[in-house]
Structure formats: structure tokens, C-alpha cells
């Protein structure tokens, strides 16, 4: 069989543009999707797909924040507890102080940005290694969340529209057949925005440049420290969004939650092909990484695989997915 | 003379249940004029962290110690140390396999979960599929509540089929995702049991998000969200222990033991099943917490 | 003479680059064989194939007449082939001696490392090289030149029968080069065959027996060094003859002072350095390795803290505390160590060129005008003849000389009034060098003030309007540029150690 | 006051040898010790000091394993669950199969070495990033521990001498006044041995060389991959020792334990001044780092600081300790 010239042309154009690479990056994800669809008739239902997307939203948003920091060659261990802290702040503003919804949203994002600013300052100005600065932040924020909330969940019962942030469906109200929860919408919009920031703005350029060679950036006369602080602050703000998502989904700020979420977020980033050494990475990859993780978990749960085996299989598949992706890249050169 | 000092080493700290135990302990401390501290590891898997906490507590030369063992055997050497130092030990929440504790203030989790199983079977009409979301696969409370429920079903309600048991670490978000997956896999599921507060809220969230209005949900413990779910009907009912009572009785017994008074070896703090109709009954309302 | 190495019909392709096209090369025992060619001609690639780092796509390699497959550095070492890499391949956290003997550490009984022996062995090598070096020093703390010396010592320690030197003198000054040449002559007399790659044309005549020229990955020809004029070799390399221009020194007496440095001090490296630089002037900085020229530049640029001294730009005193302040004041600095301080190796050519000038391509909401950036990058790729498949190629994958051109492009784009170039032509081929000289001169003609730090005296003489000479952190004198000044005069000041004679400062 | 010439001489020799730097590294630790001793009379009791050391033993051993890997520029997230896995293997050999104590010890260390070998092979041969390879291992081992043990603790009641590995006191049997538990003894002996390995053996040399510039090591003709595998295997073996320590301390193999321990181990390493970028680090630093963490926790508990504030204070002090250490180094040049 011979391909038509047109098809070959399209294929080679696709090749030249590097787009086929990006499509191939989905390979592991698609293999998983196909496997689970065949293994269980319940997997490929709309409601389950939406459940998977919904389950990705919080980890996905955290992973986007982590991606920014990791591209600069840093690491942020505080994403999980910062998310919780922001949720608690929203609870304080909305429930304790009884203010209107927009103030709660602004407060959560501002709190995240501020904490990111602090982490960034510790790292850029005081030269504390990112691992330590954000580990410290992680513990401080974990403690503060408990202190501020009085170690009790804060419920948003006075703000009836609060759960809609995550579980309402803006798309569904226009296209009833597609009741995509707002949480998922927010994840994808955020992914687009941050992708754009990374590829099209000065901040994005400096992210990659800092991760590639910080000293060279500094010697180029760039205020490297200030940009680094800005990047951490942006990542913090994104954690604030994650805090709103999780609080709205649970209709409460759970002060004890968040520990361990940082590893999931970083794992999504690294599965997505971003290097922990800095200088390279993409939001698309991170989203794929986060999806791989939630599809895997959801699929194994649907198949009622015993939990201990779920863990084993997840470990194996994470390694296999990354290995497959690396083989693909090596072949692509 | 300083106030008597009594540290309570618990299995957890952040969960509402443990905060309620702490509240009971604080109440007793205030009434009896003693000083109480309350500590517990982040997860019920961290047996060694709990041992470290116990060691630090012993260093403070307390008048008595309250201890909720994650693994009783692992703690034996330190408990012996306490015994040699003449520090009475009160076990709480679950027992310690040893004769060192002078008293035990605990809930019979096996029996409580069995009660939940009976209620579940009754509400789904004696047959059908049910599933469990449990908080922990290896901890005593997790194992007892799971086994209590499962064994009772097998013995007394053979028509009820338990199709899935999964574990969500008591994390509400994770439990929600688990419950959703179980509901997707078993669309004819009739009931679900959430074995602690976080698990139960996870099941409730899943039911709401998937719109499974027919699903019978039975929870465990209380807390504002669970109470609200019972009031609006998403949750049929729940088992409650008496965490405030556990904390209170533990401190009371510890003070008595420290003063050399006799204490009864076993203090059953009891458990109840409650639902919309009984939630406001005084004996229930007394043991519920927000 | 018998050929110890015969390489024939070697092909090598990288994605987007056809690096070697049926290249060939042979080498006799006891000869120094120069390998010449423009940046990106494929010299390093060919030698990496010979030393087992790359596998050729096709072609044959014979060592001592035997057809061989060299599938790794170890295999090459087994065949007696040693290499000094163009891009330093050292472990910065290890000491000098540990670097030299990595993989061949002397051990005492029980397999325990014998550190004393290790340091003694390293000391012995440096004694033979006549280079003062502490074998216990951490490589991280060494200057590029000293690191280069470590690489050379490492290659010598193998006692290879075939030694490849890929631009070993790129970071060395004349004195050190002389030492190296003495070593090369001695090795030669012992029958070692040496491949010598360099862009310094004068060295070719001094040291090599035969010259092989490559162009665009292909073999051009092999000639005897002694009876081939340099011009012929250059013509073989670039495909045309180059013209030789003498420096024309403009009259700058009326030009305003662009940069004024007074009493600049930092530790022992920079001691009370004062000078003026006028707009339109090229001030050369000469000195031996470690004279402190780089330190002066870094202090002026704010890369290192200044202990004392004032810096005025266009007559206004400026408190420069960081490179950001310096660039804001209109000062640019091209570092001598492109790998560590000049380039973001993982990024593409375009991003690297843009690194200093991003704000200029950014609109109010922080959006970067990528199309315009691309156009500008293409421009520089053309003017500087940077050999790269596109402006989207990662800089890491360019040849050494082409990387250097990217750093130059970066600073040209920034358009500073005062430019400090530290070893700007390190590793750059003759053709491009001439191009860069022309460029510097036209920049000066356009009113820029330029400092050129160079370890190559001919380059300093060829370019500078005035020549500042440093020795041990002091500015020992400023000489007029042009044919009036001799290399001897510069060397005298460069070794002028008497601290009492500060009056020599012009 | 003038120092005697001899004293000055000794001081400058000390300075030249860099030893004074190392002594200063204790600074934060000593500040903490002094503070807690003044704040509570219960702190500086022999029994409490021994309790602190005992509490350090497991994390200290894990941190030693992590140090090796981190010096090569890698990371090992699996140390915690590998420890548990090895404990479970010891349980299988001693309790399920009823074999004699030495076999249990050998089995645990062999299991650790083998798992380290696998991680190392994934990283060195298949070029999977260390973060992913060891994250995968962490999950696989967590699952396998549960599977093998039947999700129940395995008790060592049939091997009465087993608890002595950690809690017995060899030193105490010679010097009754100094009942240092064997677990602590093992930690310090191991620290000495691995310090020696790092500074005096080929393996140690290649640890630093790989972390400093892996490519250069490879170009030097060293079989970099084989050495890397060996280093991970050694680290795995050390986790096996940690497994024995914790199992013996708890007289049981707790299959669910271990998650989160990797962060504590890595934190001890980084607080001890080892760079996550690789190429530099020391076991002495790691031990100090581990001690700082356990002194802090113990002291706060002794002072009866509320648990939520304990976390906050721990975070603050970790940041402060590392910052102080960095200032000191910067001043030392
Ligand atoms: N790993 C690689 N991947 C892609 N392209 C490469 C790689 N290595 C070299 N090249 C390309 O191959 C060509 C030859 O490079 P090489 O390093 O051999 O040049 P060279 O003659 O040594 O130049 P220079 O004098 O600048 O050192 C260049 O165009 C370079 O960009
Ligand atoms: N980072 C550093 N750490 C320790 N010593 C250094 C460092 N940088 C430079 N030096 C030392 O400072 C002295 C001056 O070095 P500098 O690089 O300024 O000299 P230079 O005149 O530019 O010489 P070169 O020809 O090597 O560029 C040298 O002896 C060098 O070894
Ligand atoms: Mg080259
Ligand atoms: Mg220099």
C-alpha cells in the first residue's frame, strides 16, 4: 500500500513542525486509556471521564505551580501545605469574617502569592537552598493552618455559592451535554495561561534561562534575584487557586490536609518530561503527567485491584511511562 | 507543689476525632486542676514516631500517662520503663496487650462496626452489593472497623455482598475519588460504609457529585459535615463513639491512679448509632462533636 | 615514516548537521600534525571519533595498520590514544590531582586510595611541565587557564603514544604556550604522535610538521608546514585570501571620557587600579595569566564586590554593586569563561542572544516579540557567520568557536556604550577573528568605548589604541598602541614586580 | 591577653586543616542543646539524651544512605519504604520461616542491596531520572511490603534476641554507667565506616566525581554506570540496616510505615550542608543534620509546646540553622 502524496506531505509537515512529537508524548496516556477501556466497560463513561478530570484538577494546578519552580532549577515542597493554608485563609475571610465571595478568592490567592514571595526571597536573597527554604515553609504553613483554624475544618456554609467554584459547571450551563466541572475548566484555562506565560513572556524566558545557567543570567545584567522571587510568588498564587479548588470541592478548609501532595505534584511534573535539573519543561507535559497519574489510580480502583497491588502497579507504570517517553525522545533525537 | 502533669500520647492529632478526645481531656484537666498535653503522629502508620513521643513524655517525669497504642507490642519496653518508674499508664481508644495499663478507656470498634453492618443490611433490604471506604489498612482501628463490618455481614446477612474495600488514609479528597471509582465500577451498589470521618465525608461527596440519590451511606464518628449530611439525608446514619468521654475518663483515671486511688480496670465509653431521628436526643447530642 | 593512524571516509551526521563528509586523516609516529579549519569544520568531531566518544556512521579507522572499532574512551586509552578536550571536561569539586588520575588512582594494600602517592604523582607531572600548581587545590577555584593546564597534565599522565590536543592553548598566554611547546617537542622526540588543533596561525608554523585542512566536514588537503605560507593555509581553510589591516589609531584627545576608574581595589587580585577610557577608544589589557585583568573587569562590572575605588561613567560617579547596575550604566562584560558565565547551554541560540536585551523586545504586558527576536538573531547569525542549522538550535550542540560567537552577539545586541571583552576570540577561527576585529573597530568608530583583555599579544597589538599592562593585580603601565610598541616592552611591564614604582602608571 | 605561641600554632594548624570549620558546623546544634538545657531541667538527663540518640538512629542511618546518593547528584525517595521492605523480609525469614537470627540480618541487608541495585540499574543503564526511578521503587516496595506481610505487622516473638540489635547495649555491658543502645552504636560505627569509604576508597572518589561532572568521568574512561549502580546498591544495603534497626526497636515489621521518611532523611542531609546538586557533602554534616532534627523535636516536646506550634518552630529553625551555616561558610570563604 502506498500513501497518497497529500498524506505523505501532511505527515512530513507534521514531522517538521515537531507536532508529531507532542502527540507521541501522549502515548503512555493513550495506552492506559485504551487498556482500561477494554478491561472495564465502566471506565469509558462520560461520568467517569469527568470524575478523572475532576480528580486531576487539584494535583494538576499544584503541578503547574511546581513546574514553574522546577524549570528555574528549584523545587517547591510547600505546594501542598500552602494550598491548605490558602484554603484556611479563604475560610477565615468568608466564614469567620463573613465577607463576600470575591474577597475570599482574592485573599486566598494573595496569601499564596505572599507565601511564594517569602519562599522566593529566602531562596534568591538569602541564598537558602530551595529544598530547605520550601521544606521550612511546608512545616510553617502546616502548623499555621492548624493554629489559624483552631485545628478544626472551616465550613463554607455561609457562602452557598462557594462549592460552585469547583463543582459547578459553566460549560454545562451552555452545553448541557458537556457538564465539565468548573474545577476542570479552571485547570485547563490556567494551563493555557501559564503555557503562554512560559513561551511568550519575559518571565517565562527568565524561568528557562535561570534554570539553564543562573550565573550567566546574572552576568547578563538581569536582576536574576527579583525574577526568581517573582516566579516563586506566581507559583504561590497558583497554589492559592488550588486551595480554592480543594476547599470548594470539600466545601470546607481541612487544615490537616496537604502533606504528601507535594510529591504527587512533583511526580506529575517529572513524568511530564520536565527535568529536575532545570532549564527545560512544559505545561503540556505536566498536564499529561497529572492525567497519567489520575487515570492510573482511577482505572485500578475501577478494576477493584487490591490496594497494595495498586501501589505496586502504579510504581511500575510510572517507571515504564517515563522510560517509554525517553526512548521516544532519544529516537526523535 | 506543681500541678500534676499528665501527657496523653494518642494515635493522631489533626483529625476531628482526636481533637474531640483532646477536648474531653482538657475538660477533665480543668475540672481536676491538672496539666495535660496531647500529642500524636501524623498518620497511624508511624509507630516509631509515637514511641519517640512516649520517650519524650517519660523524660518529663509525669504523674501518669495516657496512651493510645498504635502497636501495643512495640511500646512494651517503654511501658515497662514507665512501670519501673512508678508512672501509671492508662490505655485509651484501644487496649494494650499487656497488664501494665492500670485502666483502659476504649470503644469496642469491632462491635460498633458490626452494628453499622446490621443497620446497613436492614436499610438495603437484606441483600445487595455494598462497599467500604476505610481510612487505614494496617492500623488497629482500621482493621477492627473493617473486620467488624465484614464479619458481621458474612455471619448475619449472607445475602449482602461486599464487592470492594479500599483505603483513603482518612483524606477527604482521596476518599472522594476512591468512592467515585467504586460507584462507577459497581453501578448497582446499594450501600457504602465510611469507616471514619474523612472516609464517610468522602463517600458523601462522591454520592453528591455522581447524583446517586439511592445509595445508602453509613458513616462513623461525627463532625459538622457528617451531622449536616445526616440532617439533609445524604447519609442514613452513623456510628459515634464517645471521644470526649474517652479523653475525659482517661484523665480522670490517670489522676486517680497517680494519687494511688483504685481505678476500674476497664472503662467502656460506649458507642451509639444515630440518624436524623435520634441526632438531637440528649444522650447522642452529648457525645457528638463538630 | 609509518602511519600510526589512518582514518578514511568518515561520515558523521547529527540531527540537522552533516558534520563529517567522507573525512580522512592520517598521522605518523613522531610527528606533530596540525588539524585546521574554520569553526564548525568538524575538527573536534573527527577527533572525538578517534578517541571513542562518538561512533562514526561509516568509514574505517586503522591504528598501526590494524582496522579497529573504538567504542569508548577506555578502548581509545587501550590503543594508546589520549585527548585533551576543547571544552574542559573536569570535575570542579575534586582536586587537581584527583582529576588527573580519575579512574587510575594509585592504591595501597586493601584497595585503599593512596592520596599521598596521588599528589606526588601529580606534582611530578607539573614539575616536568614546569607549571607551578598545587595538586591539592580544588579545580573549581582555578582560572580557566589553570584548568586548561590540568587537562594537559591529565592527557600527559596517560603516556599515550597518540596525543590529541584540541585547542590546548586557547586559554594560555605566550609563556605558558612556550612551556607547552617544549613539552610537545620532548614528546615528539620520544616518538609520540600528536594531533594539534588550534586557531592561532603562528603556532602552526612553530610546532607542526604537517597540516591537514578541513572545510565543511570534508578533507581539503595535507601540506608540509615548513614550506607552505600561512596565507595558503588560510586560503585552504576559508576558500579565499584574507587581507591584513594594521591598526589605525584615531586622535581621541577631544573625545569625552566614557569610563573613569580610580583606585579600584579588591584583595590581592586588584590593587589600586586607575585608568580612563575614552569614547571611541579600544584599550587593550595585557598581562600574564593571573595578572588580575579578569578580576578588574569583574569588579568594574559589579560581578565581584569592590573594596575600594570609584567608577565614573560619562563623568557621573556610579555605585555599581551588581551586573544589573553595570548594564544599567551602559557597561557590558563578555566573560572569558563562556560555558559557566556566558551561555545558557540548554537554551537555543535565539534565547541566548536575547538574554541581555529581553526588556527591549517586551511590551507593556510582558509579552516578548518573538518574531522580531528571531529576525535579529538571524541577522547576527549572518553577520558573525555562526554555523548553526537554525536560531532554534541548542547552544550546547554548537562547536566551541560558534558558541563564542553567540556570546559576542549577545553583547552586540545589548548595545552598551562601554564594552569589556575578556578573551573575545578564544577558539575563533582566523576568518571570523578578522571579522570580529573589524566589528570592534567599527564599534569604536561609532563612539563605543571598548576594553579588550587578551592573552595573545599579537591580538592586543593588532587591536588596541592604547595598551594597559597588569602584573599581580597592579596596573604597571599604559603604552601607546600601534607598531611603535614592541612585545618586549609589554613583557617588561607584565613582569614589573616592583611595588614602589607606582609612577609608571600613566 | 596574648595566646601562648604553642596555642596559636595549634590554632592555626587547626585552621589550615579546615577542622575549625567542621567544629563550627556544630554551632546550631550546640545552640539548640544549650537552649533546651536552660529551658527545661528534664532535657539534659542521661535517659533523655539517650532517647534523642535512639530517635536519631533510624533517620540517621537512612540519611547516610541518602547522602551517598545525593553526593552523586542523584536522589533516593525509596529509602523509607525500602527500610520497611527490608524489615518485612527479616520478618519473613525469622518469623514465617523460623530461621536463625544471622539469616534474618543477612536477608534484610541483601534485600536492601538488591533493591538498590535495581534502582541503580534503572538510573544508570536505562537512564531513568533518579527521582522517577526511586519514586517508582518507593511505591513498588510500599505495595510489596503490604503484600508480603499480609498487611499485618510481623512480630519477632520467636527470636527473643532480635530487639537487642537496637535496644540492647553492648557498651553498657562493659561500662554500666553508659548504657548507649546498640542502635546508636550502629549509627556511629556506620557513619565512621561510610566516612572512610567516601574519603579513602575508589567508590567514594567516584561518588564525588559523578556528582561533580558525570560526563567528565565517562570521558575519562571510567565505567561510570557500573559505579553508579554500586553506589545505589550500597545505599540500599544501608537501608537494610535501617530496616533491622526499626524492626528491632519495634520488635515488629510494620508494613505500612516508611512513607514520608525519605523527606526527613533528605532534610538531614541538606541541613548537614550536602548540596542536592551533587559533588560535595559529608557524613559528619549529615549526622549533625539528623541530630538537629531530633534534638529540636525532643526539646519542643519536653517544653510541652503545642503540637501545631512545634511544626511551625521546626520549620523556622531548619531555615535559620541552614542560613547560619551558610553565613559561616561565606565568611570562612
Ligand atoms: N552533539 C552534536 N549534536 C549536533 N550537532 C553537533 C554536535 N557536535 C557537533 N555538532 C555540529 O557539528 C559541526 C562540527 O563541529 P565541531 O565541534 O567538530 O567543529 P570544530 O571544527 O571543532 O569547530 P571549532 O573550531 O569551533 O571548535 C558543527 O556544526 C557543530 O554544530
Ligand atoms: N574564583 C577564584 N578563586 C580563587 N582564585 C581565583 C579565582 N579567580 C581568580 N583567581 C586567582 O586570581 C588571580 C587573578 O586571576 P584573573 O583571572 O583575574 O587573571 P587574568 O589576568 O585575567 O588572567 P587570565 O589570563 O587567566 O585571564 C589568579 O591568580 C587566579 O588564580
Ligand atoms: Mg572544536
Ligand atoms: Mg582572565
Report on this structure:
- The complex is a heterotetramer, with 2 copies of chain A (333 residues), 1 copy of chain B (290 residues) and 1 copy of chain C (506 residues).
- Chain A is mostly helical.
- Chain A has helices at 5-17, 19-25, 27-39, 46-71, 79-96, 101-124, 130-149, 164-167, 170-174, 182-200, 202-219, 224-250, 261-271, 283-302, 307-332, and strands at 154-155, 252-253.
- Chain A has 15 helices and 2 strands.
- The longest helix of chain A has 27 residues, at 224-250.
- With 290 residues, chain B is an alpha/beta fold.
- Chain B is 45% helix and 21% strand.
- Chain B has a 6-stranded parallel sheet, with helices on both faces.
- In chain B, helix 2 (47-59) packs parallel to helix 3 (72-84).
- In chain C, 33% of the residues lie in helices and 25% in strands.
- Chain C has 17 helices and 20 strands.
- Chains in contact: A-B, A-C, A-D, B-D, C-D.
- Chains A and D meet through helix 7, helix 13 and helix 15 of A and helix 7, helix 13 and helix 15 of D.
- The structure holds adenosine-5'-triphosphate (2 copies) and magnesium ion (2 copies).
- The site of one magnesium ion has 6 residues of chain C, from helix 1.
Descriptive labels:
heterotetramer, B: 290 residues, alpha/beta, 6-stranded parallel beta sheet, 45% helix, C: alpha/beta, Rossmann fold, 3 domains, 6-stranded mixed beta sheet, binds adenosine-5'-triphosphate, binds magnesium ion
Amino acid at each position: 500500500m502506498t500513501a497518497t502524496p497529500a498524506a505523505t506531505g501532511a505527515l512530513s509537515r507534521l514531522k517538521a513542525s515537531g507536532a508529531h512529537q507532542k502527540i507521541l508524548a501522549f502515548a503512555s496516556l493513550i495506552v492506559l486509556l485504551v487498556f482500561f477501556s477494554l478491561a472495564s466497560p465502566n471506565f469509558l463513561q462520560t461520568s467517569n471521564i469527568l470524575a478523572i478530570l475532576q480528580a486531576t484538577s487539584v494535583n494538576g494546578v499544584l503541578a503547574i505551580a511546581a513546574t514553574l519552580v522546577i524549570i528555574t532549577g528549584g523545587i517547591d515542597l510547600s505546594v501542598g501545605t500552602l494550598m491548605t493554608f490558602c484554603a484556611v485563609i479563604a475560610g477565615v475571610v468568608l466564614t469567620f469574617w463573613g465577607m463576600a465571595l470575591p474577597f475570599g478568592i482574592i485573599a486566598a490567592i494573595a496569601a499564596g502569592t505572599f507565601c511564594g514571595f517569602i519562599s522566593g526571597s529566602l531562596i534568591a536573597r538569602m541564598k537558602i537552598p530551595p529544598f530547605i527554604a520550601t521544606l521550612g515553609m511546608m512545616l510553617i504553613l502546616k502548623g499555621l493552618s492548624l493554629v489559624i483554624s483552631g485545628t478544626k475544618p472551616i465550613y463554607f456554609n455561609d457562602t452557598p455559592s462557594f462549592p460552585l467554584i469547583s463543582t459547578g459547571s459553566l460549560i454545562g450551563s451552555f452545553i448541557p451535554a458537556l457538564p465539565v466541572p468548573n474545577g476542570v475548566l479552571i485547570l485547563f484555562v490556567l494551563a493555557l495561561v501559564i503555557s503562554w506565560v512560559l513561551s511568550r513572556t519575559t518571565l517565562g524566558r527568565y524561568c528557562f534561562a535561570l534554570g539553564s545557567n543562573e550565573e550567566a543570567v546574572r552576568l547578563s545584567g538581569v536582576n536574576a534575584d527579583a525574577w526568581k522571587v517573582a516566579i516563586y510568588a506566581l507559583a504561590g498564587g497558583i497554589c492559592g487557586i488550588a486551595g480554592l479548588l480543594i476547599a470548594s470541592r470539600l466545601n470546607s478548609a481541612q487544615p490537616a490536609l496537604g502533606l504528601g501532595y507535594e510529591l504527587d505534584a512533583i511526580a506529575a511534573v517529572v513524568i511530564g518530561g520536565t527535568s529536575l535539573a532545570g532549564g527545560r519543561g512544559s505545561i503540556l507535559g505536566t498536564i499529561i503527567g497529572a492525567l497519567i497519574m489520575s487515570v492510573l489510580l482511577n482505572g485500578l480502583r475501577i478494576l477493584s485491584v487490591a490496594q497494595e497491588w495498586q501501589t505496586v502497579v502504579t510504581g511500575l507504570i510510572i517507571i515504564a511511562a517515563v522510560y517509554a517517553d525517553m526512548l521516544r525522545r532519544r529516537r526523535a533525537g | 507543689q506543681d500541678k500534676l502533669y499528665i501527657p496523653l500520647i494518642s494515635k493522631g492529632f489533626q483529625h476531628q476525632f482526636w481533637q474531640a478526645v483532646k477536648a474531653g481531656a482538657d475538660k477533665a484537666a480543668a475540672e481536676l486542676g491538672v496539666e495535660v498535653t496531647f500529642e500524636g503522629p501524623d498518620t497511624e502508620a508511624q509507630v516509631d514516631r509515637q514511641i519517640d513521643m512516649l520517650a519524650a513524655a517519660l523524660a518529663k517525669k509525669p504523674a501518669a500517662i495516657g496512651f493510645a497504642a498504635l502497636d501495643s507490642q512495640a511500646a512494651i519496653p517503654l511501658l515497662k520503663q514507665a512501670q519501673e518508674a512508678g508512672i501509671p499508664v492508662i490505655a485509651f481508644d484501644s487496649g494494650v496487650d499487656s497488664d501494665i495499663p492500670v485502666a483502659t478507656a476504649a470503644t469496642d470498634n469491632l462491635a460498633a462496626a458490626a452494628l453499622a453492618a446490621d443497620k446497613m443490611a436492614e436499610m438495603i433490604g437484606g441483600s445487595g452489593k455494598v462497599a467500604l471506604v476505610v481510612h487505614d489498612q494496617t492500623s488497629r482501628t482500621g482493621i477492627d472497623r473493617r473486620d467488624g463490618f465484614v464479619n458481621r455481614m458474612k455471619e448475619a446477612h449472607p445475602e449482602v455482598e461486599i464487592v470492594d474495600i479500599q483505603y483513603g488514609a482518612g483524606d477527604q479528597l482521596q476518599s472522594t475519588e476512591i468512592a467515585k471509582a467504586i460507584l462507577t465500577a459497581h453501578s448497582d451498589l446499594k450501600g457504602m460504609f465510611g469507616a471514619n470521618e474523612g472516609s464517610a465525608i468522602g463517600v458523601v461527596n462522591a454520592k453528591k457529585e455522581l447524583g446517586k440519590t439511592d445509595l445508602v451511606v453509613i458513616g462513623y464518628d461525627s463532625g459538622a459535615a457528617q451531622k449536616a449530611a445526616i440532617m439533609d439525608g445524604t447519609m442514613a446514619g452513623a456510628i459515634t463513639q464517645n471521644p470526649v468521654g474517652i479523653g475525659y475518663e482517661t484523665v480522670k483515671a490517670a489522676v486517680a491512679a497517680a494519687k494511688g486511688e483504685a481505678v476500674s480496670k476497664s472503662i467502656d465509653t460506649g458507642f451509639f448509632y444515630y440518624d436524623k431521628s435520634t441526632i438531637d436526643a440528649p444522650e447522642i447530642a452529648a457525645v457528638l462533636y463538630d | 615514516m609509518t602511519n600510526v593512524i589512518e582514518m578514511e571516509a568518515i561520515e558523521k551526521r547529527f540531527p540537522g548537521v552533516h558534520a563529517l563528509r567522507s573525512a580522512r586523516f592520517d598521522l605518523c609516529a613522531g610527528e606533530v600534525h596540525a588539524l585546521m579549519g574554520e569553526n564548525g569544520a568538524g575538527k573536534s568531531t573527527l577527533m572525538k571519533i578517534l578517541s571513542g566518544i562518538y561512533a562514526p556512521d561509516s568509514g574505517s579507522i586503522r591504528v598501526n595498520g590494524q582496522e579497529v572499532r573504538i567504542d569508548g574512551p577506555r578502548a581509545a586509552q587501550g590503543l594508546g590514544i589520549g585527548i585533551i578536550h576543547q571544552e574542559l571536561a573536569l570535575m570542579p569539586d575534586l582536586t587537581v590531582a584527583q582529576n588527573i588520575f580519575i579512574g587510575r588512582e594509585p592504591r595501597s594494600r586493601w584497595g585503599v586510595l593512596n592520596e599521598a602517592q596521588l599528589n606526588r604523582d601529580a606534582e611530578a607531572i607539573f614539575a616536568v611541565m614546569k607549571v607551578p600548581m598545587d595538586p591539592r587545590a580544588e579545580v573549581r577555584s582555578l582560572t580557566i587557564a589553570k584548568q586548561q593546564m590540568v587537562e594537559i597534565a591529565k592527557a600527559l599522565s596517560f603516556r599515550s603514544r597518540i596525543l590529541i590536543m584540541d585547542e590546548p592553548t586557547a586559554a594560555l598566554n605566550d609563556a605558558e604556550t612556550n612551556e607547552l611547546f617544549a613539552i610537545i617537542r620532548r614528546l615528539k622526540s620520544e616518538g609520540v604522535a600528536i594531533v594539534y588543533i588550534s586557531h592561532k596561525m603562528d603556532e602552526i608554523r612553530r610546532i607542526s610538521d604537517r597540516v591537514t585542512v578541513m572545510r565543511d566536514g570534508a578533507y581539503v588537503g595535507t601540506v608540509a608546514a615548513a614550506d607552505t605560507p600561512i596565507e595558503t593555509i588560510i586560503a585552504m581553510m576559508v576558500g579565499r585570501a584574507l587581507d591584513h589591516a594594521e591598526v589605525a589609531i584615531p586622535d581621541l584627545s577631544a573625545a569625552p571620557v566614557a569610563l573613569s576608574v580610580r583606585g579600584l581595589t579588591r584583595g590581592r587580585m586588584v590593587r589600586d587600579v586607575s585608568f580612563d577610557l575614552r569614547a571611541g577608544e579600544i584599550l587593550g589589557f595585557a598581562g600574564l595569566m593571573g595578572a588580575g585583568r579578569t578580576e578588574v573587569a569583574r569588579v568594574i562590572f559589579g560581578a565581584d564586590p569592590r573594596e575600594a575605588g570609584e567608577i565614573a561613567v560619562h563623568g557621573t560617579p556610579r555605585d555599581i554593586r551588581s551586573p544589573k547596575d553595570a548594564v544599567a550604566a551602559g557597561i557590558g562584560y563578555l566573560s572569558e569563561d563562556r560555558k559557566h558565565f556566558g551561555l545558557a547551554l540548554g537554551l537555543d541560540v535565539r534565547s541566548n542572544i536575547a538574554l541581555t536585551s529581553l526588556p527591549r523586545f517586551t511590551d507593556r504586558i510582558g509579552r516578548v516579540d518573538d518574531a522580531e527576536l528571531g529576525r535579529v538573531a538571524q541577522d547576527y547569525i549572518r553577520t558573525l557567520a555562526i554555523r548553526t542549522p537554525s536560531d532554534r538550535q541548542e547552544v550546547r550542540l554548537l562547536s566551541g568557536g560558534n558558541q563564542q560567537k553567540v556570546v559576542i552577539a549577545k553583547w552586540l545586541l545589548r548595545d552598551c556604550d562601554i564594552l569589556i571583552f575578556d578573551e573575545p576570540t578564544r577558539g575563533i577561527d582566523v576568518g571570523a577573528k578578522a571579522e570580529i576585529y573589524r566589528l570592534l573597530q567599527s564599534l569604536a568608530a561609532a563612539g563605543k568605548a571598548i576594553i579588550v583583555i587578551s592573552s595573545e599579544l599579537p591580538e592586543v597589538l593588532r587591536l588596541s589604541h592604547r595598551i594597559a599592562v597588569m602584573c599581580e593585580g597592579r596596573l604597571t603601565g599604559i603604552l601607546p598602541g600601534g607598531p611603535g610598541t614592541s612585545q618586549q616592552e609589554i613583557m617588561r611591564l607584565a613582569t614589573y614586580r616592583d611595588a614602589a614604582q607606582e609612577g609608571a602608571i600613566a
